[in-house]
Amino acid sequence: MRAVLMAGGSGTRLRPLTCDLPKPMVPILNRPIAEHIINLLKRHQITEVVATLHYLPDVMRDYFQDGSDFGVQMTYAVEEDQPLGTAGCVKNIAELLDDTFLVISGDSITDFDLSAAIEFHKSNKSKATLVLTRVPNPVEFGVVITDEQMRIRRFLEKPSTSEIFSDTVNTGIYILEPSVLDYLPVNTESDFSKDLFPLLLEKDEPMYGYIAEGYWCDVGHLDAYREAQYDALQQKVKLDYAYNEHKPGLWIGQNTFVDPTARIQTPALIGSNCRIGARVTIEAGTVIGDNVTIATDADLKRPILWNGAIIGEEAHLRACVICRGTRVDRRAHVLEGAVVGPLSTVGEEAQVSPYVRVWPSKRIESGATLNINLIWGNTAQRNLFGQRGVQGLANIDITPEFAVKLGAAYGSTLKSGSQVAISRDQRSISRMVSRALIAGLMSVGVNVQNLEATAIPITRMIIPTLSVAGGIHVRVHPDRPDYILIEIFDAKGINISKGQEKKIEGAYFKEDLRRSQIHEIGNVTYPSQVMDLYSTGFEKSLNIEAIRHSSSKVVIDYGYSVSGAILPILLAKFGCDAVVLNASLNQMSLSAVEREGLLTQLGHVVEALRANFGVQVSANGEQLILVDESGMPVRGEMLTALMVSVMLTAHPRGTVIVPVHASSAVEQIARRHDGRVIRTKANPTALMEASQANPNVILGGSGDMGFIFPQLHPGFDAMFCIAKLIEMLTVQERSLAQIRTELPRVSHKTYTVRCPWTVKGALMRYLVETHSNENLELIDGVKIVNHLNDSWVLILPDAGEPLVHIFANSDDREWADNTLRKYRSYVQEFVEQEEGTEAPKAEALL
């Protein structure tokens, strides 16, 4: 049998380790990852290996040559012009693959029983077998769902946290029959997980998953690289060591001198031709390459030192990576998680702070403290984007220097000379952050149209008229007054896709930032007539005559937090009386208690003035809570149902878009009006995209997120919602209180349970496995439907916190209460037992 070793990647998330090395040649225990893979293949009698190369191909060819020194026969296939993807590069060598063959990724450490996987493949007469494993946190991997016979039924490539249906993931090891390559086009970029396997699934080709026992680590980022080293030293994975075991847990190469006064804890590995000086302390977990010199009194706590490193007297190294040929001078400190690239120098008594990365051939001056990456920017993070945009503590996480780099990263994904619109709320912190973003955009040659302090619905509506590539809005987070939220829009005013977010994250983390010459630096302009454009669109989307004849009186509470209070001006223009409360800007954001106090005050004012209704506007013009004529608040699920009822009464047979967790009252109302309900994932971007993509949509959103009116613009707009309500109530001759009494009575309960990130995948998989497919909906999270009484329970992982939200929905209050209680106990028990030893009994509760 032949094996195809996928070795084409550049390992951008392992930078600076991979600036001059392809990822498969990065060393684990002083041997390249690819050598460990070849040793694994040999153990299973696979000795013909074809390596597909793209990035720095000569490095691997020079090391392995024809493979004879390693006991295999090596052949190389180089993608000369452009990468063809995981499947495309294998298609490119189809003439070499005339029998069952194995594909294995060149960037993982494993000791799986490949022979057993091959036997499984053959016994099932499979066309494609994926070797699977179970991991605590499957977000970074492709999730695979199989049936009882292990036949693959579903794929989900790198799911978001709320999409995790299983903790069984694709390891990048495949056993394939040559015929499957016939499905792939020639000389075209294609991917196994995204292209070939879904096609095989569609064609109903026999495709199975083999769950392998043993160790597997995808060495895809720096934390995983260090963990793989430590696991290998502790012999959690079966690897062939390059050196003899000097004593239990201590491997030392040839011609290495260790001073008798040096103290070495095990396990540890020291390469050949090393010199370890007097009184050196080497803590368990340390890996030292070949030709390394460590001077007297150096203190090494689990560092990984590559070949040729030189460590000075009294240097302190803490769980860091020191690359090839790097020198760390006397009394220097390199702290946990830091990486110093090849051929660099850390000067005397200098300090490299935790998780800082230094690119190759750099020098840190003596006595300097390096708190940021040497090239540019701040400490590396895993992800920039959360469920809605980039968010973090104001002036702690979201600082000016962070914003400059984010702006440059976003701008670097656009063409030089592109236009971007930027707006903000009126807070001083938002002004500071937006100016830093503008600086970053300008530095990479992007021009900025600065809308300054503008309500976010106005920004979304204006963006398509400005011929810009996208937009940014900065504001205090609507739910966290100490947080800043930065949202990035596309040219239509919709939040950018996950794919675009990944591009920006890639530019940010690998510091792939374009630098413009002086004459290419971007410009800033200030568009005029922004409010006029919004007002024109606003009026075109309303029945102005109905509003003029309504003589409505509305009380609007802005809660000291909404930019551009344009609504009272528009309503006055239409002959309505708008009483405004708390419109001045309060520099301190309101707490939840203070906002509730204002809501109570609003109810009293509505009653006293005998107004038609009141409304509290928040989230810089996106969200609202209504108060009916009796002073009673209308919010959450009731507000969702009320808006759906009002809009479907006016537009029978229309379509409404709601999140997956919305109350089933929406469907009951839609049936009254022959309407259609589409449910989406529980995030704003999904609601905006669905509202634009589907025909005849009259309303999207929910009481918690706000409401979308696609005929106006693609985003949430509380201001237009108020005007539309005035129109609808006038035409329908109803009041809010009357509509509320007509709404279906549905019991909709929710409860939030703590659930560690490492348990979410296992919980979702267990729920899928313990309930029949007929009762499952997997739009977002796991929804279990009871078709007998049209009730359901939804278990939805939180996208940003280690939490799981449980929703129970039914016309029967007792059913909802009991079901919520059962699943709350079920999830809590599962979390407790998963953190301990065993999972709870497999028992469907519905």
Describe the main β-sheet briefly. Answer: 8 strands, mixed
Estimate the strand proportion.
Answer: 25-35%
Number of DSSP helices? 21
- Rg (C-alpha, Å): 30 Å
Any overview of this molecule?
Helix 7 crosses helix 10 and helix 15 runs parallel beside helix 16 (665-672). The strands form eleven sheets. The chain has an eight-stranded mixed β-sheet with strand order 14-15-18-21-24-27-30-33. Helices cover 28% and strands 26% of the residues. It is globular and about 95 Å long. It has 21 helices and 55 strands. It is an alpha/beta fold and 846 residues long.
Give a summary of the structure in a few sentences.
This protein is an alpha/beta fold. Helices cover 28% and strands 26% of the residues.
Give a topology summary:
Blueprint: E1 2-7, E2 27-28, E3 31-32, H1 33-43, E4 48-53, H2 57-64, E5 73-78, H3 85-91, E6 101-105, E7 108-110, H4 114-123, E8 128-134, E9 143-146, E10 152-156, E11 168-176, H5 192-202, E12 207-211, E13 216-218, H6 222-233, E14 244-247, E15 250-252, E16 257-258, E17 263-264, E18 268-270, E19 275-276, E20 281-282, E21 287-288, E22 293-294, E23 299-301, E24 304-305, E25 310-311, E26 316-318, E27 321-322, E28 327-328, E29 333-334, E30 339-340, E31 345-346, E32 351-352, E33 357-358, E34 363-364, E35 369-370, E36 390-393, H7 400-412, E37 419-424, H8 428-443, E38 447-453, H9 456-462, E39 470-476, E40 483-489, H10 498-509, E41 524-525, H11 530-540, H12 544-548, E42 553-557, H13 567-573, E43 577-581, H14 592-609, E44 613-618, E45 623-627, E46 633-634, H15 636-650, E47 655-659, H16 665-672, E48 676-680, H17 684-693, E49 697-702, E50 706-708, H18 718-732, H19 736-742, E51 747-754, H20 757-769, E52 776-777, E53 782-786, E54 791-797, E55 803-810, H21 813-835
Parallel strand pairs: 1-4, 1-6, 4-5, 8-12, 15-18, 16-19, 17-20, 18-21, 19-22, 20-23, 21-24, 22-25, 23-26, 24-27, 25-28, 26-29, 27-30, 28-31, 29-32, 30-33, 31-34, 32-35, 37-38, 37-39, 38-41, 42-43, 42-44, 47-48, 47-49
Antiparallel strand pairs: 2-3, 6-11, 7-13, 8-11, 9-10, 14-15, 36-40, 39-40, 44-45, 45-46, 49-50, 51-55, 52-53, 53-54, 54-55
